[in-house]
Design a protein that fits this description.
Elements lengths: L4 E3 L5 E5 L2 H4 L7 H7 L13 H15 L4 E5 L2 H4 L8 H16 L3 E5 L7 H5 L8 H16 L5 E6 L1 H9 L11 H25 L4 E13 L5 H24 L1 E4 L2 E4 L10 E13 L9 E4 L16 H12 L5 E5 L10 H17 L4 E6 L19 E3 L6 E3 L1 H12 L1 E3 H7 L4 H4 L3
Parallel strand pairs: 2-3, 2-12, 3-4, 4-5, 5-6, 6-9, 9-11, 11-12
Antiparallel strand pairs: 1-15, 7-8, 9-10, 13-14
The structure holds beta-D-glucopyranose.
Length: about 450
């Protein structure tokens, strides 16, 4: 077969994404730590990847040597504001050092201001159920911005507000473990307000800032496309899970089933769409699942599944996600995409096939600015603890030793080449060659 390559535009951002609680370690002052101590998770985060102890340096070295020109990290609210009336300047300084570390390595930084974890004191006041939380979040954001603004102009206000609300208030797997749709809707509305206020606070401090949310897009297909009920439930679930937040940030309306809540301050509050994409579901109407809006989701029967069955390799869903994101008329940044795969048998093809879909979208001239793979090093996977391994580098949690997986080399070749070639695919995942470079 002749050699071929798919290239990306000059200046495309290639990086990995991480989140504070998942990598820092000893985040003792937030709700996740408490949730872990109470036995709700498979394992505890403990030292995590020990970034707070300074191991971010060696991990940033790895990323930079592997050709990554960007990194998305998050800051931990409970460290920066350990009590309602106290700011921790040392914590802010630590984040400044990290961001300076990225700059020194020639990497663009993207900063997420909220990634799932909340300070304990905030949760004692009801967390995002409390109508005062959006304002408190904006205060925290303003303070953090003042300290960090010289290092980046790329900001994510809230990571996956849809997953936060669903997992914490519908499924009950995240703290506070509630299963109550009404409360979930209140939380979602407050998250929209929090995002909106943060958006304005950021722009007040830094006019040239580019601000967005990172939304987890699930491709949701009717299991039986001929069934009107399956089609209805797919559309309904998708309308809430995927659309609610970015749409509210466009027009200031929170639309939930047949209800509309006006949040006028949210209109026009996204400069880009942050897209997290992992997989696609097939949904069947099921009256027994009111909490899931009457839909039972499953992967395709013949799906290419990850280690624990958490993710199906569905690259076509990624293209669909990009097309959806394009509908908002803003630039797109892929803020997360990846798979759990301890022995790296699946990740190379998952990665190559998703980059191929990304290229297809870029090739249509859609305004896609970068791609952040989840994740750099194995990190603490929330309620699933250390049972799922998303890193390009493997982590030995006991010894803190890192070991490179083959995918790290594949991704390095992609980053350095600013593209994906048939030779790379032949070398790392020949089984996907025909799909990516058909004869
Ligand atoms: C989250 C990450 C998480 C990843 C893999 C995303 O929903 O933003 O924090 O580690 O999925 O589960």
């Amino acid at each position: 077969m002749p050699k071929a390559a798919y290239h990306f535009p000059r200046g495309f951002l290639w990086g990995t994404a991480t989140a504070a609680h998942q990598v820092e370690g000893n985040n003792t002052n937030n709700n996740w730590w408490a949730w872990e101590q109470d036995g709700h998770t498979v394992d505890k985060s403990g030292l995590a990847c020990d970034w707070w102890g300074g191991r971010w340096k060696e991990d940033f070295d790895r990323a930079a040597e592997a050709g990554q020109n960007a990194h998305r990290l998050s800051v931990e609210w409970s460290r920066i504001q350990p009590d309602p009336d106290r700011w921790d300047e040392n914590a802010l300084d630590r984040y400044r050092q990290m961001l300076r570390g990225l700059r020194e390595r020639g990497m663009t930084a993207m900063v997420t201001l909220h990634h799932f974890s909340d300070p304990l004191w905030l949760m004692e006041q009801g967390g995002w159920e409390n109508g005062e939380t959006p304002g408190k979040f904006a205060d925290f954001v303003r303070k953090t911005m003042e300290a960090l603004k010289e290092y980046t102009t790329l900001w994510v206000t809230i990571n996956e507000p849809n997953v936060y609300a669903y997992s914490g208030y519908v499924a009950g797997a995240f703290p506070p473990g509630k299963k109550d749709m009404k409360t979930a809707l209140r939380v979602m509305t407050n998250l929209v307000r929090g995002h909106a206020q943060a958006y304005r606070a950021i722009h007040e401090v830094q006019r040239e800032a580019r601000v967005g949310m990172a939304v987890n897009y699930r491709s949701i297909f009717p299991a039986n496309p001929k069934s009107p009920l399956d089609r209805w439930v797919a559309k309904t679930q998708s309308g809430i899970f995927n659309d609610l937040f970015p749409r509210a940030a466009q027009d200031g309306k929170v639309k939930f089933l047949y209800k509309t809540i006006n949040v006028p301050e949210a209109a026009g509050t996204q400069d880009f769409i942050g897209l997290n994409y992992y997989s696609r579901d097939y949904v069947t109407f099921d009256l027994r699942l009111p909490g899931e809006l009457f839909g039972r989701r499953a992967y395709a029967e013949d799906a290419d599944l990850s280690d624990t069955g958490f993710i199906a390799n569905e690259p076509a869903g990624f293209f669909e996600a990009l097309k959806w994101a394009r509908g908002f008329g803003k630039p797109i940044i892929v803020t997360e995409n990846g798979v759990e795969d301890a022995d790296d048998h699946m990740r190379p093809r998952y990665l190559a096939q998703h980059i191929h879909q990304l290229w297809r979208a870029v090739n249509f001239n859609w305004r896609i600015k970068g791609y952040f793979h989840w994740s750099l090093v194995d990190n603490f996977e929330w309620e699933r603890g250390w049972t799922q391994r998303f890193g390009l580098w493997e982590l030995d949690v006991e010894t803190q030793a890192r070991r490179k997986r083959p995918s790290a080399d594949l991704y390095a070749e992609i980053c350095k080449e600013n593209g994906l070639s048939s030779e790379m695919v032949e070398k790392y995942c020949p089984e996907a060659l025909e799909k990516i470079f058909p004869e």
